[in-house]
Amino acid sequence: MPKKLKQYISFTKFRLSFLVVVSALSGYLFNGGSDYYEIFLLMIGGMLVTAASNGSNQIWEKDIDGLMKRTAKRPLPMKEMSLTEAYIVVAVSLIVGLIMLAMINWPAFYLGIAAYISYVFIYTPLKRITPWAVFVGAFPGAIPPMLGAIAATGEFGFIPGILFFVQFTWQFPHFWAIAWKIDDDYLKAGFRLLPSPNGRDSLSAFLILVYTLFMIASSFLPIMFGMAGMGAAIFIAIAGIVMLIPAINLYRTNEMKSATKLMFASFVYIPVVLIAMYFDKI
Q1: DSSP string across the chain
Q2: Percent over 90 (pLDDT), the chain
Q3: How far apart are CA 72 and CA 80, in angstroms?
Q4: CA–CA separation, 32 vs 34, rounded Å?
Q5: Span 243-256, mean pLDDT?
Q6: Rounded to an integer, what distance in angstroms lies between the CA atom of residue 20 and that of residue 50?
Q7: pLDDT of 194-214, one tens digit each?
Q8: Model's pTM, two decimal places?
Q9: pLDDT(1) > 70
């Protein structure tokens, strides 16, 4: 792989962008979307706006990233990319991405702007101020399935709202599992993002368990409101158990390996839930 391409993939967090696209596409298909041109615009446009958000985050935290092991080798701390180049990548990605969302419909365009602004200008600076940054960051993080659903109809409504809420509740156990693993690294940069003031302790583990239970319960809302049936319910239950077991073990032991298992389970959970609801519906 060419070195410059690897830099851009790192700068835009391509893997995270791809997960966003999966969530958005699931929301689009679940809400009745079937136009291949719109799917193309949604996938590429959503990926570009996410890339711009991630790149802007790295510009904002370029000095902080150099303090942490997990981010020290990013292009900006390593001086492999100039700030001018970084700004150009962000600007082009954001403009092209938003244009593509606007070509679908204006509500999708507005959601793209809302996701970018809330992530870059609210969540990012709050990370060094308060653990409540996780709550704020859950809003842009939950937009993708809602964006996909609205791209399909052009209207805000009950189904997009439910999809938003399902992914919103997922953000907490997902992010806190990651924060548990890299809390030492976060502290080097002044980030305190676990729910307990003492970081890795029984209170944090308890809250992670509570929010995991809340997430699982929230995932059954589409079933309760007739948006999907028992087929989806079975997959959601299985995915919920896969999340719940490491969450319980983390509360019991406070061990790193349980946080690791919970983190990996969370990566699988939300795509399984969204895809299961879609296939159950058809």
Answers
A1: --HHHHHHHHHHTHHHHHHHHHHHHHHHHHTT---HHHHHHHHHHHHHHHHHHHHHHHHHTHHHHTTSTTTTTSTTTTTSS-HHHHHHHHHHHHHHHHHHHHHH-HHHHHHHHHHHHIIIIIIHHHTTT-TTHHHHHHHHHTHHHHHHHHHHHSS--HHHHHHHHHHHHHHHHHHHHHHHHTHHHHHHTT---SSSTTSSSHHHHHHHHHHHHHHHHHHTHHHHTTSS-HHHHHHHHHHHHHHHHHHHHHHHH--HHHHHHHHHHHHHHHHHHHHHHHHHH-
A2: 85
A3: 12
A4: 6
A5: 97
A6: 8
A7: 999 999 999 999 999 999 999
A8: 0.93
A9: no
Predicted confidence (pLDDT) per residue in 70-128, tens digit: 899 999 999 999 999 999 999 999 999 999 999 999 999 999 999 999 999 999 999 98
Q: What is the mean pLDDT of residues 162-188?
A: 95
**1-10: which pairs have CB atoms within 8 A and are 24 or more residues apart?**
7/75, 7/80, 7/81, 8/89, 10/73, 10/74, 10/75
Total count of residues recorded for the chain: 282
- Stretch 175-191: mean pLDDT: 93
**Residue 45 tokens, joined:** 């446009």
Residues in contact with 18: Cβ distance below 8 Å, sequence separation at least 6, in sequence order: 47
Can you tell me the distance from the alpha carbon of 88 to that of 12, in angstroms, rounded to the nearest whole number?
Answer: 12
Please compute the mean of the pLDDT values over residues 184-196 and round it to a whole number.
Answer: 91
**How far is residue 21's CA from residue 270's CA, in Å, rounded to a whole number?**
12
